[in-house]
Amino acid sequence: MALFFNRISKLSVRFSSSRITHNVFDSQSCGLCTNDLKSRRDNARFFSSLPQSPYLLLGGKLLRESPEGKIGKHRYFDPTTEKRVYNSEKTVPKELNGQSLLGTSQGWVACLEKKDFTVHLTDLYKTWVSSPRIIPLPSIGFKPSTHATEISLSSSDPVQDDFSVAAKFSEYQLSVCRPRWDSKWTHIDTPYSLLPASDLIYSKRDESFYFTSYKGLYMGSLDLSENELKFQELRLRNQPKIPEASWELLDKCFMSNHLVESPSGELFFIKWYTLCIRREEEEYIFTHGITKRFMVFREDEKSKDFCYTEDIGDLCIFLGKSEALCVSASMYPGLKPNSIYYIGPGLGSYDLASGTVRSFDTARGKPSLVPYPYWLNPIA
Description:
Elements: H1 2-14, E1 55-66, E2 69-78, E3 83-86, E4 90-93, E5 100-105, E6 108-112, E7 118-122, E8 134-139, E9 150-153, E10 165-170, E11 173-177, E12 186-189, E13 201-203, E14 208-212, E15 218-223, E16 228-233, E17 236-237, H2 244-251, E18 254-261, E19 267-281, E20 284-299, E21 306-309, E22 315-319, E23 325-328, E24 339-343, E25 347-351, E26 356-359, E27 374-376
Parallel strand pairs: 17-21, 22-24
Antiparallel strand pairs: 1-2, 1-27, 2-3, 2-4, 5-6, 6-7, 7-8, 9-10, 10-11, 11-12, 13-14, 14-15, 15-16, 18-19, 19-20, 20-21, 22-23, 24-25, 25-26
């Protein structure tokens, strides 16, 4: 534990002259920041125009150079207003450039140092944080498969809490670290492929990490008390009654699988269908994906089966290239209940009751200076 806090304190001393630090203004980059324990959501009153709901990190805008580093602003999409906003200016020290974004969990962003493969967690991208913090994690020891990277935290306040981190850095391994106690990652082999990446979550209800295998045939779990992987077959009940032609269309789609836990502890399994469209213009060929449908299955606590539903009540689910989110719409006026907000391919929302897809303006919504746009959780 002493090692954990010593590593944070050394970084704090080194960069004590920097007010705020980050480097989203470099391609595929993330920032390092000072250790200020006063960063809390009450700072949001200074940024009243910024989203206080789940929001989408789109990229950054470089404003100018300074002796300390690059100065710029982050760009966000606020789903409650369906508008794009910028935060206040932040400075990026030159020596912090070059860290790749890995994913987000509980409002924290994970970054990777390319030289030694050390992972850092930062709350830099929380819109209300004026003095961001960093938590250094051990080196993973190898270059991760970037298309498979996903990360999940067991706590929304890892600075204060004893927390665990689970991640997918390769196709057949789940990597786990308890930073206050572990000096290295534990890489656990799995019998099933973990691709695609966006299905790793932490269940507060069960105090376990959950994930699905490729094609969603099995669900894996890691109980933190046992540190042992367990698998169970994903049993889906009450499949939707849709025309045969619709099933044939879905068979042509790419399907990704996602897990998410509601604030009350309900577990949902989601199938996301996207159709690849090929278009030719003169000598150029363009391809892009279109979201066609979502299917949501709610876990039955007794049987552990997942039953199809088109009614999740007041809930909203957020899906993208990182950990899925689930919030109560009534907590954030402007959100549409019983909906899924998604990014990639396209930016939009899906009404579960009607099956209606609503696209937002993606022309200006594409990530400018980050590899993937990420939904960020407003908690803590």
